[in-house]
Amino acid sequence: MVVDFEAELWQWDARRADTWTFVSLPAEASEEIRDLAGGLRRGFGSLRVRVMLGGSTWKTSIFPDSARGVYVLPVKRAVRTAEALHIGDVATVTVELIDF
């Protein structure tokens, strides 16, 4: 499954000592992913993905966010730097589920 979307970068507030930056997957896509994944879950309910954002491609995991009701994707500092992205910017993202 491949999901193309645009989303605003946001910072996770739960751990202010660390700066974790995420984008949220669309609600409809998150629901479809939950249905597709069924009971398949790794640590923290994560699912492995391949991500394309601008000229950057990497493998990581998406995580369910019960507060938002969607999956969230961490965007590492190296990607944000390479793509000149900051908190509040909107990015075009492609997420492909892998390991299914």
Descriptive report:
Pfam families: DUF1905. This is DUF1905 domain-containing protein. This protein is of the alpha+beta class and 100 residues long. It has one domain: Elongation Factor Tu (Ef-tu), domain 3 (Beta Barrel). Helix content is 17%, strand content 43%. It is built from 2 helices and 7 strands. The protein has a 7-stranded antiparallel β-sheet. A hairpin with a 4-residue loop joins strand 5 and strand 6. The longest helix has 11 residues. The relative contact order is 0.32.
Question: What's the layout of helices and strands?
Answer:
Elements: E1 2-8, E2 10-11, E3 21-24, H1 27-37, E4 47-53, E5 56-65, E6 70-74, H2 77-82, E7 90-97
Antiparallel strand pairs: 1-7, 2-3, 3-6, 4-5, 4-7, 5-6
Concise summary:
By secondary structure, this protein is an alpha+beta fold. Helices cover 17% and strands 43% of the residues. It has two helices and seven strands.
Q: What's the CATH topology label?
A: Elongation Factor Tu (Ef-tu), domain 3
Give me the Rg, rounded.
13 Å
Averaged pLDDT: 91
**Beta-strand percentage range:** 35-45%
The main sheet comes to: 7 strands, antiparallel
Helix run count:
2
Biggest sheet: strands side by side, in what order?
1-7-4-5-6-3-2
In the predicted model, the low-confidence regions spanning at least 5 consecutive residues are none
What's the domain count? 1
Q: Under the CATH scheme, which architecture would be assigned? A: Beta Barrel
Order of helices and strands: EEEHEEEHE
CATH superfamily: AF2212/PG0164-like
What is the CATH C level class, in words?
Mainly Beta
